[in-house]
Amino acid sequence: MLHLNLEFSVQNNHNVEIGEKRLWKLLRDWDLIQKTNTRPTQKASDMGIFTLQERVITHNHGDKIHTTTKVTGKGQVYLVNKILKHFEKAA
């Protein structure tokens, strides 16, 4: 699985000019990422595009669960195709 912040570099390998902030905006516009945070929507989870990786960080004042959004292999193919289509229409 690929960390979502690294996904935009994969897009750049396809000669698509997209930065990290524009990628996040597109994902939110397409209702794949929640508007208020970086977690996938239920729709994106059901499609198998993203997974959440959880880990517990222990501090002296207690434990905290930290989540990271990851792109699955299926999600990477889906996102590359969707972004390429998006930029074809814009050109």
Please outline what is shown here.
The chain is an alpha+beta fold and 91 residues long. Helix content is 47%, strand content 24%.
Give the topology, please.
Elements: E1 2-3, H1 4-12, H2 20-29, H3 42-47, E2 50-59, E3 62-71, H4 73-90
Antiparallel strand pairs: 1-3, 2-3
Overview of the structural elements:
The protein has about 90 residues and is α+β, with helices and mostly antiparallel strands. The chain has helices at about 5-10, 20-30, 40-45, 75-90; strands at about 1-5, 50-60, 60-70. A 3-stranded antiparallel beta sheet has the order 1-3-2. A hairpin with a 2-residue loop joins strand 2 and strand 3. The protein is elongated and about 50 Å long. The mean pLDDT is about 85.
The counted number of beta strands is 3
Unreliable runs = none
Beta-strand portion reads: 15-25%
Estimate the helix proportion, in percent. Answer: 40-55%
Give me the secondary-structure category.
alpha+beta
Question: Taking Cα atoms only, what radius of gyration do you get, to the nearest Å?
Answer: 15 Å
Shape: elongated
Distance, first to last CA: 31 Å
